[in-house]
Design a protein that fits this description.
It is a multi-pass membrane protein. This protein folds into three domains: 93 residues; 184 residues, no CATH class; 155 residues, no CATH class. The chain is built from 19 helices and two strands. The radius of gyration is 22 Å and the shape is globular. It is mostly helical and 463 residues long.
Length: 463
């Protein structure tokens, strides 16, 4: 009876996994936010442990389909889960604000004040013909809801507990890896729809006009999950899934020829091996060596060619720091110079602030292309300090988690992966305006939840 019950459970889990992957496929093909949202919510009520898989896959789907405005899958999911989390919190009579969520609340207050600062004193208002509604909308539709959702997601994770979060992450590692295979295949099928010729030297491939830098960097941050399967999984099937997923993801990133995406990928690989290889040296060394050998073989047989990527980094068109950073260093310098006028509170919470500064300096409307410079420009030194305070708090939990794993106080290495993904997002943010990227705030909530629950779990086990 037990064996039959176990087989039935595995079969049901397999059907649920197939349903998840079917939703991803139809989302890419039909690009209908309402249908995809409805199917994801149905799946969630069938299997609550798919929560993180559902939340984290939607941003990459929308990046591929160039969905940034109007009704989107992510917005619908955030609205639904906001009310669902509130329902659970009220039902459980749980405390929403604790020491960790308090930091997020402080940042929320800064963002709200940044909105007031923008519509009251923003010098960039003339640039947009005093369109107050546009600034208010970007705050109330995007900025403020993201922080509120992060607080609620963190609170919900704490309510559900250690085992729920661990199981969510285990499902996520497998499901996101297979989803990334589907996304990569979709990439190869649609790759001919859009490509750009860079200085007659290299062809940059992308999804129907989608930004290759965002695409490559998001893939890099999620590629840590299949890499985890390769390095840590004990089942052959999961290792094979990880290998296929990693190979397709890395090749997809390579085809975009994104400098930022390439550097982000390298950062994620180095950090992942550094964190995960301590108690798994043999497998890590084998995987790394095999990867290098395979790349060498592919290069030798001219299956892949790194010369276009080399040209992107070191070619004749790269002659100073501005050309190397594709003018980003110019925009960063303009932002740093401008903030001297309003160092404490910044110019106001709107992406128009950075565009106004660059327009004033260079006559061109560009965002700052840096998460950190954007925060500095919009919310001043105070805003940047509070944001970095959130990250330092998370890094402290990351360090403690690594120590607990090394001492044998904790055995679930899957808890390390959200931290590596978050740090990858933050690295990508050095050259991308990712201050309100959904994936970034989702990982912030998850990491805060991991820090709280692993600490509580160890305390309970020591009693």
């Amino acid at each position: 009876m037990d064996r039959n019950a176990n087989e039935n459970t595995k079969f049901i889990d397999f059907i649920k996994a197939l349903f998840f992957l079917f939703i991803v496929i139809q989302a890419l093909i039909f690009n209908n936010a309402f249908i995809t949202f409805g199917l994801f919510i149905l799946l969630f009520f069938l299997e609550k442990k798919y929560l993180l898989s559902i939340i984290l896959v939607s941003p990459i789907i929308e990046t591929i389909l160039i969905v940034v405005e109007g009704v989107t899958i992510t917005k619908l999911l955030v609205i639904f889960y906001t009310f669902y989390f509130l329902y659970v919190i009220v039902k459980e009579n749980a405390v929403i604000i604790d020491k960790k969520s308090w930091i997020l609340l402080v940042y929320l207050f800064i963002v709200i004040f940044g909105l007031f600062n923008a519509i009251t004193f923003g010098p960039f208002l003339s640039l947009v013909d005093w369109d107050y509604n546009a600034i208010i909308n970007e705050n109330f539709i995007s900025y403020i809801p993201k922080i509120l959702f992060s607080i609620l997601l963190y609170s919900y994770i704490k309510i559900k507990g250690y085992n729920y979060l661990r199981d969510n992450l285990r499902y996520l590692a497998v499901l996101i890896s297979i989803a990334l295979i589907i996304i990569a295949v979709y990439f190869f099928i649609t790759i001919s729809n859009e490509s750009s010729n860079w200085w007659n030297v290299a062809r940059r491939f992308t999804f129907k006009g989608a930004d290759p830098n965002n695409f490559a960097s998001i893939l890099s941050s999620l590629s840590i999950f299949p890499l985890y399967l390769i390095l840590k999984s004990r089942t052959k099937r999961e290792i094979v899934v990880g290998i296929i997923s990693v190979a397709l993801i890395y090749f997809s990133i390579f085809l975009t020829l994104s400098k930022g995406g390439t550097l982000t990928l390298i950062f994620s690989i180095i950090l992942t091996f550094f964190v995960l290889s301590k108690k798994n040296v043999k497998r890590s060394f084998f995987v790394l060596s095999l990867g290098i050998i395979i790349i060498a073989i592919l290069v030798n047989f001219e299956i892949i060619d790194f010369s276009p990527l080399y040209e992107r980094f070191f070619g004749e068109h790269i002659y100073d720091i501005s050309s190397f950073t594709t003018r980003r260093s110019d925009w960063w310098l303009a932002g740093i110079k401008a903030i001297k006028q309003r160092p404490i509170l910044g110019f106001g919470g709107s992406f128009y602030a950075g565009m106004w500064i660059n327009y004033t300096a260079y006559g061109e409307m560009f965002v700052m292309h840096s998460l950190y410079i954007e925060i500095l420009v919009q919310y001043g030194i105070l805003g940047l300090i509070v944001f970095l305070w959130i990250i330092v708090r998370i890094l402290k939990d990351f360090k403690q988690l690594i120590n607990k794993l090394n001492k044998g106080q904790l055995k679930d290495t899957i808890f390390l992966i959200p931290f590596i993904s978050l740090l990858t997002c933050l690295f990508a943010g050095l050259s991308l305006s990712w201050q309100w990227r959904d994936l970034l705030w989702f990982f912030i909530s998850i990491c805060l939840g991991v820090g709280s629950l692993t600490g509580e779990n160890i305390k309970m086990s020591n009693i």
